[in-house]
Structures are given as structure tokens and as C-alpha cells.
Design a protein that fits this description.
Layout (H helix, E strand, L loop, with lengths): L13 H4 L4 H10 L6 H15 L8 H29 L1 H4 L14 H21 L1 H32 L13 H17 L5 H36 L14 H24 L3 H39 L12 H17 L2 H31 L23
């Protein structure tokens, strides 16, 4: 399939899957299906987790969160089936993703979407089915999540260095997606540790620290380059408005990981005869979490200013709007973790305000995504454009 570039939009093509008989529409939706749809599960899952931890209780709080978690599971299964079907029935088109400079980044969204389900299993599944039924399943699937995260974090950058075309003026925060998956897996490991026996808890915690280190320093390096790109080439096109929020992802997840692992470290390291190391890890988690949270404040303020600027010019909807949700969600969870650790009411109030903003974003994006999916114009795979020029317009897809 080859389309002239002036007739092809990487954010959505009304003719891609929106016309024809239902069977043809379904076939075209599968043929055009890309991993960026898993950002829907990331955003939905993090809203469920944030509602479960909302510091000021409200009626049906847990029930709403659980319903969103179950929706998250359903969406993840549906998207997994659709993407698997694409590889089975449209293999030649599917394999082009590895050479595309934007779409390939979204491989990181698959394990991050799974991580929200695993975290939800601990928050919602245990009250439903009991620890004995849920924890072994979550523990086993965590290793699957880790494997996918490490693969995305290593292989996608390798493809960036060897087969894809990139330039700093076309760089966006989407570069973060494959490398951030490992720190998200680290957070899941940290939440799993308290539910494990001592002989399993210690290696899981150690592995979580390694996963954190595989991700956060690389993500911080990318943010440095991103600041240079913004200074030299100014804001991306308005289609990329939501990308301004992506920087909160590695910062919020990094802070949350340090805080959770530091809390785990005291009892787990003490049981392993390393009590002193546990105290150090707790202190590093608190100080490191606070410093990352403060760094995130800068990016949060910048994201809000950029969004106001984009709103003035109009922001066309695309699937990239899910970038408003997950990064803000993990930053909200980090804020609540600081509230629990420091016992400062200010963090609880800030966390509640951030979650309110998150729910507002999710509501708008979810409704518009459902409409776009039903009409079919959000199903589009830039890899099928067949033109090298398509990969030059990185800003249009996300």
C-alpha cells in the first residue's frame, strides 16, 4: 500500500478503517492496528489505581476503581488479540514497525499496560479472590512483564541506532516510552514484595532496583536532549500537544519506585541480615523521591503552560492525547506516596488535586477515543505508508 504523503495523516485517516461493510472495517482495523493503542490501557489502569488511593474517601470509591480495572483487563485482552491477529494475517505490514522512528517506540506501552493490570490485581484482586489466589498469578506475570520491558528498553534503542532515521529537530518525548517500561516494572515489583515470602521478596526487591537503574538514568539523559531540542527548535506542532506531559512519566515513576522500594527495604533487608542497608535505602528513597518530585514540578508547570499555548491555536484530537493520562497518573501516585511517608497534609492535598485533573483528562480522552474507534479514523498504521517521507513527520503520529 502506498499513499501520497499529502493525503496521509499519521494521526488518523478517515478512510483507513471507517468505511465499507462491517467485516471489511474490522479487517482494516486489524491491518492498521499498532501498539499505541496500549496507551489506552495505561491511562485507564492508572486512573483505577489513583482512585483506589484517593486520600479523601467518597461513596463507591473502591467500586469505581475496580470497574475501571476490569475494563482495563478487557481492553488489554482485546488489544492483544487484535495485535496478534495483525502479525498472523498481515505479517509483511506488521514487521515494518521496527524501522519506523515513531511507531516502534510504542512497544514500551505493552508491558506498561500489563503493569497497571498487575498492580490492580494487588489492589482489587486480593479483596475479591484472596491473596493465595492472586499473588502467585501476579508474581508469574510480573516476570513476563519484566522480560517485555527489558526487551523494549534494549532493542528499540538498538534499532534507533542501527536502522531508523532520527534528527534532533524531529525528536519528541515519545523516545521515553521504550526505556520507561523497566522502571514501571520496578514499581510493580516493589508493590509485590510485601505479599511475598522472605525467600522470594529479597530477590524481587533486588531485581526491582536493577530495573529502576536500567531505566531512570537513560530517561533523564533523554530529557536533557529534549530540553536542548525545545530551546533550539521551539515547541512541536499542535498535533503533538499531549507530548509535553510525557516527561512526567519517568520522573513520577522514578520517584514512586524509590519511595516504594525504600519502604520495602527495611524489613526485607533486615530479614536478609542487611538491616543497615535497609535504613540507607529508606533514606535514599525519601530524599531521592522528594528531589525527583520537585524536578517533576518544573515539567508539570511547563506542560500546563504549553497546553494553554496549544489551546489558543486549537488542538486536533488524536490517539496521542492519552499522553495526558498515564504520566500525570504516576506523578499523582508518587505525590500520595510522599504523603504517606512524610505525613504532610500538603502532599495529600496536592495528590487529590492531581487525581481530579487526571480524571477530567481521562473522561474527555476516553469519550473521544471511543468515538474515533467506532468511526474508524483512529486506526492507522504509518508503517503502511510505504514512503520514507512518512517517517520524517514524527510529530504527526503521537
Amino acid at each position: 500500500m502506498s499513499l501520497p504523503l499529502d493525503n496521509f495523516s499519521l494521526i488518523g485517516h478517515p478512510g483507513a478503517a471507517g468505511a465499507g461493510a462491517p467485516g471489511r472495517r474490522l479487517r482494516e482495523a486489524v491491518r492498521q492496528f499498532t501498539p499505541n493503542w496500549f496507551t489506552v490501557t495505561m491511562g485507564t489502569g492508572v486512573v483505577a489505581l489513583a482512585l483506589a488511593q484517593f486520600p479523601f474517601g467518597f461513596p463507591a470509591q473502591h467500586e469505581i476503581g475496580r470497574a475501571l480495572w476490569l475494563l482495563d483487563i478487557g481492553l488489554f485482552v482485546l488489544f492483544s488479540l487484535a495485535y496478534t491477529a495483525r502479525w498472523i494475517f498481515f505479517f509483511d505490514g506488521a514487521r515494518r514497525i521496527f524501522s519506523h522512528s515513531v511507531v516502534s517506540m510504542f512497544f514500551g506501552a505493552i508491558p506498561m499496560g500489563l503493569a497497571t493490570i498487575l498492580n490492580g490485581g494487588l489492589a482489587f484482586g486480593i479483596p475479591l479472590w484472596g491473596e493465595g489466589a492472586v499473588v502467585p498469578v501476579v508474581h508469574a506475570l510480573w516476570y513476563v512483564d519484566v522480560a517485555m520491558s527489558v526487551a523494549a528498553g534494549l532493542l528499540i534503542p538498538f534499532f534507533m541506532f542501527t536502522r531508523q532515521e532520527h534528527a534532533i529537530e524531529r525528536m519528541t518525548a515519545v523516545w521515553l516510552l521504550p526505556v520507561v517500561a523497566c522502571e514501571v516494572a520496578a514499581v510493580t515489583g516493589a508493590q509485590l514484595v510485601p505479599h511475598l515470602a522472605a525467600e522470594a521478596a529479597f530477590p524481587t526487591l533486588i531485581f526491582s532496583y536493577v530495573l529502576w537503574a536500567l531505566s531512570v538514568p537513560v530517561a533523564m539523559s533523554i530529557l536533557v536532549i529534549l530540553i536542548l531540542r525545545l530551546a533550539l527548535h521551539k515547541l512541536p506542532a499542535r498535533d503533538m500537544a499531549a507530548s509535553g506531559w510525557l516527561a512526567l512519566g519517568p520522573i513520577g515513576t522514578g520517584a514512586l519506585g524509590l519511595l516504594l522500594m525504600g519502604t520495602d527495604a527495611r524489613p526485607v533487608f533486615a530479614a536478609a541480615g542487611l538491616g543497615g542497608a535497609g535504613d540507607v535505602a529508606f533514606g535514599l528513597g525519601l530524599i531521592g523521591g522528594l528531589m525527583l518530585w520537585g524536578y517533576g514540578l518544573w515539567w508539570l508547570g511547563l506542560a500546563m503552560l504549553k497546553t494553554v499555548r496549544y489551546l489558543r491555536d486549537g488542538m486536533p484530537f488524536n490517539i496521542g492525547w492519552w499522553g495526558f493520562t498515564f504520566p500525570l497518573g504516576v506523578y499523582s501516585l508518587a505525590t500520595l506516596a510522599l504523603a504517606r511517608t512524610t505525613h504532610l497534609e500538603a502532599f495529600a492535598l496536592a495528590g487529590a488535586a492531581l487525581i481530579a485533573m487526571l480524571v477530567g483528562f481521562w473522561s474527555v480522552v476516553a469519550v473521544r477515543t471511543a468515538h474515533g474507534a467506532w468511526k474508524g479514523y483512529l486506526f492507522v498504521s504509518p508503517c503502511l505508508a510505504g514512503s520514507p517521507a512518512a517517517s520524517r513527520i514524527e510529530a504527526d503520529f503521537v
